[in-house]
Amino acid sequence: MKAIPKAALSGSLKDYRAQKNSGLMSRADSFFDWQELRRQHGLWPYARSTSSAPKPRSEIMTDAGEAGSGVNFASQDYLSLSSHPRIKAAATEAIEKYGVHSAGSAALLGNTANSLRLSAALSDFLGGREVVLYPTGWAAGYGAIQGFVRSDDHVVMDILAHSCLQAGATAATQNVYYVRHLDLDAVARRLANIRATDAKNGILVVTESLFSMHSDAPDLRALRNVCDAYGASLLVDCAHDFGCMGEGGLGRIGEQEMLGDIDIVIGSFSKTFASNGGFVAVKTRAAAEYLKYYSAPHTFSNALSPVQAATVLEALSIIRSDEGLMLRHKLRDNVNHLREAMARSGREVLGEPSPIVPVRVGGEALGRLASKHLSIFAGIANLVEFPAVPLGQSRFRFQVMAAHTAEDVEAMVAAFNGAMESALAELKQLEGGLGAQYPAAPEIEQAQLDGTWSGT
User: Fold this and answer.
1) pLDDT digit string (tens) for 246-262?
2) Is the CB of residue 389 less than 8 Å from the CB of residue 213?
3) What is the separation of C-alpha 149 from the centre of its chain, rounded to a whole number of angstroms?
4) What backbone phi and psi angles, to 5 degrees, belong to 178?
5) Cβ–Cβ contacts within 10 Å for residue 155, how many?
6) What's the rounded Cα separation, in Å, for the pair 301 and 309?
7) What tens digit of pLDDT does each residue of 369-409 get?
8) Which uninterrupted H or E stretch holds 156?
9) Domains, the chain, ranges and CATH?
10) 382: enclosing H helix or E strand
11) pTM, whole model, 2 decimals?
């Protein structure tokens, strides 16, 4: 077996973010060397591309140009709408009527009749809220916080909140406080501390309705009560469950009957609605109009294209129909099947049932080897490692689609089990041939259970 250098199985993206070097461009060199080392040994699982539609069985290509195919649990097309005949017909019709480009920001003639219809339809779906559209979900998350929060205000945020929310907060104020994941008491303590010294400025509490790396959710009613006790506003990002979960398609917010009690609701179109884009939904016309002109991604980005708006509008129509309910039930059944099959195989499945099924691996080295072997076993799934998840807690994030069959689920479980067994065997061989360069195999196995081994 070709020896794999320790550097290819250790380290993380975080190690190369802040390079102390006066040359801005040359700072990239050490990262690229590390990336290339991983790539040469088949351990760089990112930037893959699809050579076919994102369907349950897909053809892909690595960023090194190597072709592959297999059962696909790496695409976030949760209700399998991206290739739906009605979606494709709506996109084609929009191109014929409007062309492919909005040709302006929403503030400057970038809106089309399609985007106006989409705003109205989303408002109706969300119980009459005012809706502001954005060109991406990331822009919506960033813009919602940057648009409303000012420098003297405060943001209290779950430590696992999405990058766009963190970036929007730090762009708006230096008063950003991160609290332990889903720790309601920590939120209450932080709010009490803020109000003890600042009774006049705003506080925004930020969370998600479904966290994408852990597949867990907050108690929104309890969080609302804490916010009310200290005069704080509540923002909830529902990117991963909006449209694809709950009987009515309103995700965890709908299931917890909280739609009318959240100040700012953020959503993304890229998971369920077959398009890029996102939205921010607020309670008043005044708040929506303010956001349009003080939220930089809305004012200074081109608006959703007419094709995107038409696609999302048609997807929303399907989501609200009997077909949408059927697709959500099919997705739910596939999620439960995958979780149960993984658990029967002895795998540690994290979180609650959702289109995201995280399965913990442990150390980064084992995760990288498993990712390499998964492609050999004709499985396609995304490895997630530090800093996106805690050090030593790498995992595969399986993303389930309504169009998956029971056979697809069983094929993925078999592929993952084969990949894990092969990865552990390879790691044992590497440890045996290279002495103390790698942790002993029993330590590796224990680290899978307790998450303490970092792979370094």
Assistant:
1) 999 999 999 999 999 99
2) yes
3) 24
4) -100, 135
5) 26
6) 15
7) 999 999 999 999 999 999 888 889 999 999 999 999 999 99
8) strand 154-158
9) 41-72+323-450 (3.90.1150.10), 85-319 (3.40.640.10)
10) strand 382-384
11) 0.90
